[in-house]
Design goal:
Number of domains: 3
Number of helices: 12
Largest sheet: 6 strands, mixed
Radius of gyration: 28 Å
Order of helices and strands: HHHHEEHEHEEHEEHHEEEHEHEH
CATH superfamily of the largest domain: von Willebrand factor, type A domain
Strand order of the largest sheet: 7-6-5-8-11-12
Number of strands: 12
Strand content: 15-25%
Shape: flat
CATH topology of the largest domain: Rossmann fold
Mean pLDDT: 75
Low-confidence stretches: 4-16, 119-128, 155-178, 414-419
CATH class of the largest domain: Alpha Beta
């Protein structure tokens, strides 16, 4: 047997990594960027702490090693160094972090130095230069990229095809016709079916010329597309990572995919995001990707209350709440602002307050679609009651399949407008 020839090294695998595209690098580290805190201590005294540059450097280094883009010898040298960030591997990682910032995927946290500058080397002064404390943020470009990737993965796995505007059971007289026509009624747009209109006039005879009357007018029908305002309620209570399973990261992925879907396919729609725990707060899309769970209870009532306020400002034909949760309501906000908590069973006080908010949603014409990540009998009964009250839908799913349920329901929904 002939001895093996010399190993072939391609430029892609050289330490400079000049050929590594920033979008490809984002794909490689997206799981770490979307991490929900599943691997950290959920009782951390600072659960809202944002990822630091150290976290970013470690994510990039892990990705390079996992993909085989750097030699193992670089890892060995980094492990032997007093500070691995000063090693050759650390230099490569910092260069790639700066490339992500330069290409518009990342930006420094407020008041921070540029990404990749906190290397602790010459000229580094002050705590802002410490990568263990300096933070970074995802840009709109990065959020859009992550949403697109998630949407592609979810819909690709579901075998879904193209999507369009929300379809309804109603028809109107607009531009995009269905091929059908009907007699003109007062208030219709004059999108005339010329052929049928002249046929009606001709039936009365052609003597003395053709005279059109109102009864002769026929118009072409078109499908009525509607706009929708959506608030996504994300449960970030402790139970979302409590039972040996990360349920919050899949929920965030779905929310990002839904945001991308609405921005690209439903430009007339709006979507807002609310995290609910001991209380509830709206969170901008830019912060959603790196949101984490914490040592919180489940204040569903406060989440529904905030969602109603957000939807009240929207002038849309349809309004809905998409609630993703895995637990029962276990907290409410009392009139004085104090949080009442009871994690044991369905507390009558908590349940009553939550159902009052559900009733308010029904009176406001807001549909609540609930995606439940748990299957306890009492939770199933609660979710079914919420769905009946608001004529919404209840889905009992898993973290692995929730994306297909949420996105397919959003696209396939058929809503009839009631005058």
């Amino acid at each position: 047997m002939a001895p093996p020839g010399p190993a072939v090294r391609y430029s892609k695998y050289e330490p400079t990594l000049d050929d590594l595209d920033s979008a490809e690098l984002m794909r490689m580290i997206q799981d770490r960027l979307l991490a929900s805190g599943f691997e950290r201590d959920p009782w951390d005294p600072d659960p809202d702490a944002r990822p630091t540059l150290d976290d970013l450097y470690e994510a990039i280094a892990e990705a390079l090693l996992r993909e085989g883009l750097v030699d193992e010898s670089l890892l060995d040298a980094a492990m032997e160094a007093d500070d691995w960030r000063q090693s050759e591997l650390g230099r490569l990682v910092r260069d790639l972090a700066q490339r992500l910032e330069r290409d518009g995927f990342l930006r420094p946290g407020e008041g921070e130095d540029p990404v990749g500058s906190g290397d602790g080397g010459p000229g580094a002064v002050g705590p802002a230069r410490d990568p263990g404390r300096a933070t970074f943020e995802l840009t709109d470009k990065s959020i859009d990229f992550l949403g697109y990737r998630t949407l592609k993965d979810v819909l690709g796995g579901a075998g879904a095809a193209s999507v369009g505007a929300h379809e309804t059971d109603a028809t109107t007289t607009g531009v995009e016709t269905t091929g059908a026509s009907r007699p003109y009624a007062f208030g219709d747009a004059l999108n005339l079916d010329v052929t049928e209109t002249f046929k009606q006039a001709a039936r009365r005879g052609l003597e003395g010329g053709l005279a059109l009357e109102e009864g002769d007018l026929w118009v072409q029908e078109s499908e009525l597309s509607s706009s929708c305002a959506t608030v996504v309620l994300l449960d970030c209570s402790h139970s979302m990572i409590l039972y040996g399973e990360d349920r919050f990261t899949p929920a965030k992925r779905v929310a990002l995919a839904l945001a991308h879907l609405i921005r690209t396919q439903y430009p007339g729609d709006s979507v807002r995001f609310v995290l609910f725990h001991d209380s509830a707060e709206e969170i901008p899309l830019a912060r959603l990707a790196m949101a984490q769970v914490g040592p919180y209870h489940t204040n569903t009532a406060q989440g529904l209350r905030l969602a109603q306020r957000l939807l009240a400002r929207q002038r849309k034909d349809m309004k809905q709440i998409v609630m993703i949760t895995d637990g029962k309501p276990s907290a409410i906000t009392l009139p004085g602002g104090r949080i009442y908590k009871n994690a044991y069973g369905l507390d009558p006080l908590v349940l009553g307050e939550t159902l009052r908010e559900v009733g308010a949603c029904r009176r406001a014409g807001i549909q609540v679609n609930t995606f439940m990540l748990a299957r306890e009998p009492e939770l199933i009964a609660f979710v079914q009651r919420v769905s009946r009250m608001t004529r919404g839908k209840a889905y009992f799913t898993t973290p692995q399949t929730i994306g297909q349920y949420v996105l397919q329901d959003f696209q396939a929904r058929r809503t009839k407008l009631v005058n």
